[in-house]
Amino acid sequence: MDAVTNGFFSTVLTVQHESEFSSKKRLFCSSMVSRKPSTISRISCKVSGGGMEDNPTRTSSSSGTKMEDYNIAMKRMMRNPYEYHHDLGMNYTHIVQNLIVGSQPQKPEDIDHLKHQENVAYILNLQQDKDIEYWGIDLGSIVNRCKELGIRHMRRPATDFDPESLRRGLPKSVSSLEWAIQEGKGRVYVHCTAGLGRAPAVAIAYMFWFCDMNLNTAYEKLTSKRPCGPNKRAIRGATYDLTKNDPWKEPFESLPEHAFEDIADWERKLIQERVHALRGT
Fold first, then answer.
1. pTM, entire model
2. Of 115, 164, 200, 277, whose CB neighbour count within 10 A is largest?
3. Which residues does the UniProt record annotate as the domain Tyrosine-protein phosphatase (predicted)?
4. For residues 100-120, b (16+ Cβ closer than 10 Å) or e, as one string?
5. Phi/psi at 168 (nearest 5 deg)?
6. How many CA atoms lie within 13 A of 30 on its CB side?
7. Looking at the domain assignment, is residue 119 inside a domain?
8. Residue 117 is assigned to a structural domain of this protein
9. What residue numbers bound the domain in which 155 lies?
10. Selected catalytic residue, list 146, 192, 211, 228
11. In whole angstroms, how far apart are CA 77 and each of 40, 127, 163, 245?
């Protein structure tokens, strides 16, 4: 197979079937865990009928090729075994109260589902335009349906499979998420393309910075509910960036591997102040 150069790739990838991934399980979001008083976890799935096959310009074969290429890129760049199945439709997971992390809505009917079944009042989209175009999503129709239903649609684009782009974008993304949660008009749906990298990283950073958790606790809380592989180093880097006051401070790249997996109370307060200051930017 030739090198994949589709829009959402920032790196040219050579597609190969490697035995090291043959034994790794696929991620299927097809189960629902009922919520009890002792837990708030629930995995929910809604299949957008027809998926990419609804578009007459695409065949099931081309749809399968897109998913295969995307999943190989994800395994190579994110070092995790999870896969995205676009043809199964939107899938999502309840993380904490009023926060849902999931994959991209594919059609206006998905917005209706989020509004009426999940009481979603805000959507935070982390995709770049080229991600949306790659999957043939009509973003205009989705945004229009959000307006009709009174859902606030927000965008904080970050480059897929790029930890440095994620690191730079986390403060503003968390600012939008924290603002929406504080508004309290309904749940917030955070998504990227597959809901396995950028979106869970934003949710973890929010829990780390605003919910009195260290990074490992927040990471485990999310990944125990939604199996995924967000980049922990990007979150540590963004945490360092927000707490850095001294221009002569040691560069993040030279710090120990586990630096900034936890922070002092004064550092958390400083982060919160700086994230709040990003509102509206």
1. 0.77
2. 200
3. 91-248
4. bbbbbbbbbbbbebbbeebeb
5. -65, -35
6. 6
7. yes
8. yes
9. 26-60+67-276
10. 192
11. 31, 17, 9, 32
SS3 category, 153: strand
> What is the C-alpha separation between 232 and 235, in angstroms, rounded?
5
Strands of the 91-96 sheet, one edge to the other? 42-45, 91-96, 99-102, 187-191, 120-125, 152-155
Find where tokens 């959507």 sit. Answer: 123
What value does the mean pLDDT take over residues 256-264?
96
In whole angstroms, what is the distance from residue 240 CA to residue 251 CA?
A: 9
Residues 250, 220 contacting (CB under 8 angstroms): no
CA separation for the pair 212, 264 (Å, rounded)? 10
Q: Say how many residues make up the chain.
A: 281
Q: Please state, in angstroms and rounded to a whole number, the distance separating the CA atoms of residues 61 and 271.
A: 47
Provide the number of structural domains found in the chain. Answer: 1
132 to 45, 136, 155, 257, 274: CA distances (angstroms): 20, 6, 12, 34, 30
> Model confidence over 200-242: pLDDT tens digits?
999 999 999 999 999 999 999 999 999 999 999 999 999 999 9
Q: How far apart are alpha carbons 179 and 63 in whole angstroms?
A: 37
Per-residue pLDDT tens for 93-146? 999 999 999 999 999 999 999 999 999 999 999 999 999 999 999 999 999 999
45 is catalytic: no
Of 35, 195, 33, 9, the closest CA to residue 110 belongs to 195
How many other C-beta atoms are found inside a 10 Å radius of the C-beta of residue 45? 17
